[in-house]
Batch of 4 targets.
Target 1
Amino acid sequence: MKRKINLQPAFILHRYPFQNTSLILDFFTLNYGRQRVIVKGGRASRFKSRSLLQPFQPVLASFSGRGELKTLIEIESYEASIKLQGEYLFSGLYINELLIRLLEGDIEHDLLFQVYRDTLLLLQSGSDIEPTLREFELELLSNLGYGINLESDCSTGKPIDAKEWYEFYAQSGFTINHSKNESQRTNIFLGAHIIALRNREIEKRTVLRTAKRVLRLALAEQLGGKPINSRNLFSKSRGL
């Protein structure tokens, strides 16, 4: 049965040309997760809503179709476009790629949708990039069911001890490092930093370094080890 979705709040995550004048868009929608939509004639100069077919533009979109690829019927703006430049643009493209890679279609993620919108607004306002991205990554993993246990040792169940060192494994979590050889391993972290990450106290540089390493390991597991293209392309951006 052909399905129609009317005026769904959405953001465009990615766009690429299709055939002569059309576009294919990846939307992040409020109630239907990621949706792939064809816009017939979307690249033509006469297309009346051409200016809305850009990432970071909050829109209301209507589309229909039977399969995974829907057809755009209507699109309109409902909030001002979010303007990102320089490193903030690179950061926005990075989180868009994470969503494209990890979101599934037809699954509601209303909380994550709000987190995404708020993150874009923080980037637009000039917020500190690294804490903003780490917060988003934590929320992304949690909302998709891949949250990291920052409370306890996955082997013993004991609470994380601020004075101990722990090994992190993306599939299971943190386990105490009995060898005390924290300097030779990239997955060893101080308990105090794990606790700070749990409490979202990640402004300090040492905690930010821990957050970045832990989240890279956790995301790599969910991405199947495949590299994040935007991270490689914009490797000079300090937050990625």
Target 2
Amino acid sequence: MSENDNSVNLKKRSYHHGDLRAALIAEGLRLLGKRDVDALSLREVARGVGVSATSVYRHFPDKDALLTALALEGLAQLGAAQRAAAEAAGGGSAGFAATGRAYVRFALANPALFRLIFTSPVLEPAKAAGTLDSEAWTLLQANAAMVAARQGGEAATRAIEAWALVHGLAMLMLDGQIPADETIIEKVIG
């Protein structure tokens, strides 16, 4: 074991935190960057933070509760990435296209997290209750309304068209059906 490994283990063993919940979410996100959702365990997340497995249960009664928190955090990160891309592009139509490209790039950079957000059932209760609010959804709705006002059509239909395009592109790339190529992203999401 190297000196560096020792210091990491020492830090984990002596970890005292003010916000264990946030630390567990951060560790869960870190682990999702390395593996599939199915391979993630509460015990592993606890071990990564340097706390006992029973400590996790004070914040997350089960794995689904942790996965829900991870999905919500991922959705917040997606929205922040889209907002930053829209602002960098100067808003308007260019900003709308930038949010789409940011969506695909987020999926490619965070495949397990992206699949957790969009293909797992963990967010279904919040969706069903009408309590799932995200910046990504707000941006999509606002941009779709802008396009509908300029080009006609219903904003809801424009939103579905835009989401279908970027989500379909992201999934095709994630599933290896087409190359995960920046040139393709730029050409398809104009």
Target 3
Amino acid sequence: MKTSIPIFIIMATILNNACSQVTPGSDIIETGSGKLTITCLGHSSLLFEFQGKYIYVDPWSTQADFSQLPKADLILITHHHHDHLDTNAIALISKPGTAIISTRTVCDLIHQGKVMKNGDLDNWNGIGIESVPAYNTTAGRDQYHPKGRDNGYILTIGNKKILVAGDTEDTPELKALKNIDIAFLPMNQPYTMTPAQVETVVTAIKPGILYSYHTGETEVNELKALLAGKTGIEFRIRSLK
């Protein structure tokens, strides 16, 4: 006997399948030790998947439905501002055994996690983690991110070094970094960098792939114009306001 499926069931199935996907689109990077999947969730929220492990950076509920995303094996928090530290998002992606790495301020607020200070080195499941300073340098801006408090992170995954700079300006420490393959650099004045400051960092560290993130209302095309003519750097523009 031929039966028909009610349209509302079909639509519900389509919507459920759509919501269960990691969105928006993801980038695949070959690391020499397997594929790394990078998903830009929005603003400064990132998701890395490598060898079946899921690593989140600054999950923020306004950027994705975290109840529909994979549970976290590791969560990295750069600092305690509301668009970086979201306890609801953390709860939604946490499972028994989820590791959290962050700053002293964050760990004191949420009463969990491992503290990494600027310059600390760690290793998590074969992935190298280095905490790098993230702070403002322009007069009058240090109220936002004072030196010594907040983190950026460098992840060494296979043969790739991925910099997630956190909320920072073009600090001497940032411009001194070497062998960065992929860089996430913030561009949201007055809190982080202007396009010109991002360009100075890019010129100094020469990442193979650049993402500008945490961009707010800053015009991304300004940075695109500044980078015109620079060879060896792929600027990947994503929706990361």
Target 4
Amino acid sequence: MAVSLNWLDSQTILQNLGSLAVFGVALIIFFETATILGSFLPGDSLLFLLGLSLSSWLSGFPIWLAIPIVFIGAVAGSQTGYWIGKKTGPRLFKQRNTFFFNEKTVDRTKDFFQHYGPRAIILARFIPVLRALVPMFVAIAHFDQKRFLKLNLIGGAAWVGALMLAGYLLGEIPFVAKNVELFALGFVVISSLPLPFELAREAIKRRKKSRG
């Protein structure tokens, strides 16, 4: 792998990983979800482009095997984040003046979890940075470990399965294959829609209550 690899470019990452792309992506997704330090990695577009690659130059690797491998990386990453939160979280969340743990990010994570509760664990999967911070925060908040694992499995399956399958199915369309960058960007935007939909649902509920 090239030393000058651009870790923000999903396509370049996959090309450098070559035949080991599935395992490499699983490790990258693990790192992105396990620690805030990996939040700069392009998780969403990487999953989509991996799915697309599995329908073209990586077609020798079955999609039914690739998804579980990456899924394990995603779930293990969040479980590691939960463990880190349990062991060192209180100290980390008090460090409000560092690059990653600044006051705005910490407060945003707290508000997100307090507002959505357990659903935040699933919704956070689709939001960069929050998918690494929420597992840590719920551990600090003494959220039940077994319940977290259950929601982690659901969120991991929804995130990995949806993005990789979308890439795989769309990759068989010639127009998509010729416009990879455009569709990768579009799907990153689409993958963030669960939160706006949730916000809209909450707004409708509040409006109904106020009218009642």
